[in-house]
Amino acid sequence: MKDSPENGHTLELDNYVPALITFLANKLSAGASRLYREKFGVGIVEWRLLALLKVEPCISPNRMCQVIGLDKAAVSRSIKQMQQQQLVTVLEDPTDARKSLVELTDRGQALHDQVFEVAIKREQLLLEELAVEDREALIRILNHLNRRVAVVNAYQPDL
User: Fold this and answer.
1) 97 three-class SS
2) Strands 8-10 and 96-104: what pairing?
3) Own/partner pairs for 119-125, CB < 8 Å, 24+ apart?
């Protein structure tokens, strides 16, 4: 943060970590969404859900929201779209009939595998100029920051 007499406090966007992370994520998401819609007929939210369902088969929409950090409405819309495309099946939760579980269909598994190849190539292109130890440090730091989000989001200033 820098001070200027006419503006008071001003963020230095080149050094403000939340902005840097947000700008990078927004740009990567927009590019991926455009590409995945054009090549595979799904957007970035649907890809995230496909990827999550590959890691955690047959999970609830609430679990999807927790892991990915999306709101329930976005997840619900994407699940409906993915059902129409026959990428997922929505089942009744055997332990609680009021809840549902989502799982990939064979078609969803196949689409995941196609998009996966492109997603990994995009990651390689993003990181290719980083040394291995820098990549490892970046992943370690991002995981650490991810674990701190609940603390940050719980902060309530005394105003």
Assistant:
1) strand
2) unpaired
3) 119/32, 119/47, 119/51, 122/28, 122/31, 122/32, 122/35
Residues 102 and 64: their CA atoms lie apart, in Å, by 9
- SS3 letters across 29-87: HHHHHHHHHHHHCCCHHHHHHHHHHHHCCCECHHHHHHHHCCCHHHHHHHHHHHHHCCC
For residue 130, the 8-state DSSP code is S
Give the chain's residues under pLDDT 70.
1-7
Sorted by sequence, the CB contacts under 8 Å of residue 130 that are 6+ apart come out as: 138
Mean pLDDT of the chain: 93
Burial (CB count <10 Å: 0-12, 13-18, 19+), residue 71 = exposed
Interval 83-111: pLDDT, tens: 999 999 999 988 888 889 999 999 999 99
Q: Which domains occur in the chain, in start order?
A: 43-154 (1.10.10.10)
Q: What's the rounded Cα separation, in Å, for the pair 117 and 112?
A: 9
Q: What is the pTM of this model?
A: 0.85
DSSP class of residue 91?
E
Tell me, what DSSP letter sits at residue 131? -
Determine which helix (DSSP H) or strand (DSSP E) holds 9, and give its type and residue range: strand 8-10
